[in-house]
Amino acid sequence: MPTVRANDIDIYYEQQGAGEPLVLVPYLAIDQACYAFQVADYAKHFTCISVDLRGAGQTSKPDGAYTTELFADDVAAFM
Questions:
Q1: Distance between CA 15 and CA 46 in Å, rounded?
Q2: What is the mean pLDDT of each run of 10 residues along the chain (79 residues)?
Q3: Three-state SS at 28
Q4: How many CA atoms lie within 13 A of 61 on its CB side?
Q5: Is residue 29 within 8 Å of 52, Cβ to Cβ?
Q6: Cα separation of 20 and 34, whole Å?
Q7: Distance from chain centroid for Cα 4
Q8: What are the φ/ψ torsions at residue 41 (nearest 5 degrees)?
Q9: What is the SS3 assignment for 25?
């Protein structure tokens, strides 16, 4: 299970393809699987990195309020 420790949580991610990086950030409360049908095509041109946001999928689920700003901070720390 590939994870990166960032912003005090373990962020799960999947990586496919080769080329310039393309970070796929799911919409709120959904995990990276929401990109399952797009990744194969994107991966022909990019290194696709799809992440599970805080509280979703296989990423840490700490107690507390989740905000868009917090999700953005998590992704920035992940990168």
A1: 10
A2: 95 96 88 88 97 94 95 96
A3: coil
A4: 7
A5: no
A6: 21
A7: 10
A8: -70, -45
A9: coil
What pLDDT, on a 0 to 100 scale, did the predictor assign at position 76? 97
pLDDT of the residue at 36: 86
**CA of 69: how far to CAs of 14, 72, 74, 76, in Å?**
23, 5, 9, 10
How many CB atoms neighbour CB 74 within 10 A? 23
Q: Which helix (DSSP H) or strand (DSSP E) does residue 37 occupy?
A: helix 36-42
Residues 75/23, Cβ–Cβ less than 8 Å = yes
Pairing mode, strands 9-17 and 3-6: antiparallel
Q: How many CB atoms lie within 10 A of CB 26?
A: 18
Distance between CA atoms of residues 8 and 41, nearest Å: 33
pTM score of the predicted model = 0.90
Return the amino acid letter for 63. D
